[in-house]
Amino acid sequence: MPSEHELFQQRLDKRARLLEAGDPYPARVRRTHTTAEAIAAFVASGEAEGAVEVSVVGRVTAQRMMGKAAFLDVRDATGRIQLHFRRDALANYEDLSLVDLGDFLEVTGTLFRTRTGEVTVAATAWRVITKTLLPLPDQWAGLKDPETRARQRYLDLLANERSMTIATQRAQIVSAVRRFFLNRGFLEVETPVLQDQAGGAAARPFTTHHNALDRDFFLRISLELHLKRLLVGGFEKVFEVGRVFRNEGVSFRHNPEFTLLESYEAYADYEDVARMVEALISGVALEVLGGTNLVHADSPDVSLAPPFARTTYRAALIEHAGIDYRDYPTTEALAALAHDRRVPIAEGASWGTILDALMSTFVEPKLIQPTFIFDYPTALSPLAKKKVDDPDTVERFELFALGYEIANAYSELNDPVDQRARMVEQAAKRAEGDDEAESMDEDFLIALEHGMPPAGGLGIGIDRLVQLLTGEHSLREVLLFPALRERPRDGTNIEGTPPEGQ
RNA sequence: GGGCCCGUAGCUCAGCGGUAGAGCAGUGGACUUUUAAUCCAUCGGUCCUCGGUUCGAAUCCGAGCGGGCUCACCA
Q1: Which residues contact A495 (CB under 8 A, 6 or more apart)?
Q2: Hey, which end of chain A has fewer CB within 10 Å, N or C?
């Protein structure tokens, strides 16, 4: 074919010729029926040929030109309909030569059924309502290149029905989650993205700069510490669905920004939260997918019907790895164990980090069916309340399914003295170079000192939840616009003119 | 960041040391119920980039850029 430049030029020329007859980009169009409604109306009318007049709009997906007549297909969000153009019925029939695949048309006509049985609009008037300058992906070959699919998601959505389905289901999942909390009397709130301290999770934050204040801010890595301040302020049930940012590697399961749900309920504990999580996840699955059994091609079948399996952190590690972490109380002992088990450990990793590595290696991949892991080591959970009878363990659980973490929850630590001590400890680790340790957040501590009621808190990675429910293995598939490396643009047509020289 | 794999026409892909190919899309023509319309003709390429080996490189080698998978870290 002509080079991309020539294709572009041909379409620019067509645009110019269309402009002579009218505006190929009108602000207002006539649409009496969607494509699906038009077909339904024809069927409902008893299929009297010529009796139902409609105006439909949509993008041209196929052209079958036959000289003095032509069939085109247009598609809108509801489906597709065939159009029949006859030279003897249309004053501007010849302008069809200015129409390319991908252009948007407005077509008025009456409905009939062709002899091959397809409901079709016999056009009595038509015009271009958006001229397209670049070709869309080939209708039959489709668009497969993963990079183009991610970088130009609009093309992916047009070419791959599955992408549209995932994006739609994601939106429905988020709506269903919101509805779940609102129905339970939670208030949806918004907290700052730009923060003095990025706390509430173990992760490296992004930094940014405020020019007028001439100071740096961190982008939040969690929602936790601000939502808890609201409990101090008298709210009893709050939640937020928000984007958080973590300055870490990009992979099929990590994006630098992702969507986090967090909820806090005063006077509840982590057992209450666990029951709520079962109701939430099974309820959302029921609402969005129509059932709690997940059957996806590339992943094992999963049942999200409550109750979910339960075990404890210690029991799970003993069961799946034969390791009782209480036998390895020092960093040295645990590091030696990790080495024996061929679990790679970063230089200078803390006891908690090593333990987490063992857990990730030996236990998490085995948790295919939804499973709660209760009672985490205190060292891993600086914001969770200790168990009354065991100060080395906190009232915390995580929910796993398909081998990855779905939810994280605890009975919130509300003893300001204990919280201060643990933050001091974290800050010390930080000073030793652990840049994922919690930083001191004096404002948060002062809030706690004013009294935060006992509360159960929950965090759910929405992207992971969407992965679970859609059966998508890659995070990139459930994000409309995943982070990618910067690619130098070749500059095609930014200015409406393609680059010189193909 | 490490390992493995990939990069050829707008799209989907062949070719893998000897003149750069196919289908679709485009352009011109025929065709008034086609539907992956059909038929005839035709245009179209820094074979990712740079360097090397060779009489000769899309093909072999090295480096770089981009991508995919995977490991590490995390959600």
Answers
A1: none
A2: N
